[in-house]
Design goal:
By secondary structure, the chain is mostly helical. It has three domains: 2-121, MgtE N-terminal fold; 136-237, CBS-domain; 289-440, Orthogonal Bundle (Tetracycline Repressor, domain 2), CATH 1.10.357. Helix content is 66%, strand content 6%. The strands form two sheets. It has a three-stranded mixed sheet with strand order 1-2-3.
């Protein structure tokens, strides 16, 4: 579909394109925007019908939305905003400049303005900033027949109707009931008789990562969000959680690569912004490499006595760094998925110790044979191989436990990834290497 859209735009066959767009899926049309320049993107958007434009708009990236907002008339913008689901509208407003938000708030009703401001004031990455207010609420005194009629009347503009929420007169959440139950059970049954009072919920201030774990653990499609007085203020749907998972994974990858997290798309990011986010960690890691320089300088006499020792330094440091990065990556991912808890540090230590022993013995044996076959002196080969065994064991244990320490200190475990672990184990590898060489060779 993407190629067809681009072809028709390039050939300026707009009337044919307009007809074909009405048969296309919104998500497929949104993908075509990635291949178009700003001018043709605006042309394509103007060819969309109002309802289709709303759906496509919700799938576009932040930069694409900004381009369209700058180009279209304020009246059409307000029409699109009015039709967006509330949580999609909040996401859009969070990305937009202050002057755009101001225009939209001016045209909103008092109640809408109050709700928008409330949502925009929730902490970033909290359940409150993620939720939508478009849910179906029921009363426990309703019969099944009355509940279904209520859903038909009010559910048209709701984001989901598959799960309904039973509230009392003070809007406190008393239970949930699925549409499936309402459709299958007798009309004269009361909602109170069929609702599920054992439900999973979260609060407005819960972190989005915690909410993601709830969805994963209980296989949920929606989660109700309550305030401190147990009043229902919104719901979070699975489509928003998928976006959170994508965002959190991206953030973790950036931290694991020693970069400051950046929400902007790569191709739309300013080069100075990208450079600034990379320089800080690179500079820090470069400065910490001074430790390795100091260690090598301290053992200069050892290297001068047996120059062949210098040839094995890169191999030892690289292997130790790779071993530590393997362990840290597994533990960081385990923490993110809720598979590893803070109280598991002893289990992690013991497991990594055993794994590192097996890996270390295997690699040290291979290295010993390799060096002897290449003609190295036995004393040098044994020194390098013993160092390799010890540094691999240390690297894996450190790589496995440091992310847990970071989590305990309320830091993101992702910072204890490849670059930082490598720097730490490099220092450890050199210290072990030169001290063993001093005992076995000199």
């Amino acid at each position: 579909m993407n190629e067809r859209i681009i072809q028709l735009i390039n050939e300026k066959k707009f009337s044919i394109l307009k007809e074909e767009l009405n048969e296309a899926m919104a998500v497929d049309i949104a993908e075509a925007f990635e291949e178009l320049d700003k001018k043709n993107s605006i042309i394509l958007f103007r060819l969309l019908s109002k309802d289709l434009a709303v759906d496509v708009f919700s799938y576009l990236s932040g930069q694409q939305r900004k381009d369209i907002v700058d180009a279209i008339h304020e009246t059409k913008l307000n029409e699109i905003i009015d039709e967006l689901y509330f949580d999609d509208m909040i996401d859009f407003l969070e990305e937009m400049p202050a002057n755009v938000v101001k225009k939209i708030l001016v045209n909103a009703t008092d109640e809408e303005r109050k709700l928008i401001n409330q949502f925009l004031n929730y902490p970033e990455n909290s359940a409150g900033s993620l939720m939508t207010i478009e849910y179906v609420d029921l009363k426990k005194e309703m019969t099944v027949k009355e509940a279904l009629e209520h859903i038909k009347k009010t559910g048209v503009d709701k984001e989901t109707i598959y799960t309904c929420y039973v509230l009392n007169e003070k809007r406190k959440l008393e239970g949930i009931v699925s549409l499936r139950k309402l459709v299958l059970l007798e009309d004269n049954l009361l909602v109170e008789e069929i609702m599920n009072e054992d439900y999973i919920s979260c609060t407005t201030l819960d972190d989005q990562e915690e909410v993601t774990l709830l969805f994963k653990k209980y296989d949920l499609l929606t989660v109700p969000v309550v305030d401190k007085e147990a009043r229902l203020v919104g719901i979070i749907t699975i489509d928003d959680i998928v976006d959170v998972i994508d965002q959190e994974n991206t953030e973790d990858f950036q931290k694991m690569a020693a970069m400051e997290p950046n929400d902007e798309e790569y191709l739309y990011s300013n080069v100075f912004s990208l450079a600034r986010r990379r320089i800080v960690w690179l500079a820090l890691l470069m400065v910490t490499a001074t430790l390795t320089e100091m260690i090598i300088g301290r053992f200069e006499s050892t290297l001068a006595a047996i120059t062949v020792l210098a040839a094995s330094i890169p191999m030892l440091m690289d292997t130790a760094g790779n071993a530590g990065a393997q362990s840290s990556t597994l533990i960081i991912r385990g923490i993110a998925l809720g598979e590893v808890e803070l109280t598991d540090y002893i289990k992690v230590f013991w497991k990594e110790f055993r794994v590192s022993s097996i890996v270390g013995i295997a690699l040290a044996s291979i290295n010993l044979i390799r060096m002897l076959l290449l003609g190295s002196e036995a004393s040098v080969a044994f020194t390098v191989s013993i160092t390799l065994l010890i540094t691999i064991m240390m690297a894996k244990v450190v790589g496995g436990t440091l992310p847990i320490v970071a989590k305990k200190l309320r830091l993101d475990p992702a910072i204890m990834a490849g670059p930082l672990i490598t720097t730490i184990v490099d220092v450890m590898a050199l210290l072990v290497y030169f001290n063993i060489a001093g005992v076995l060779i000199l």
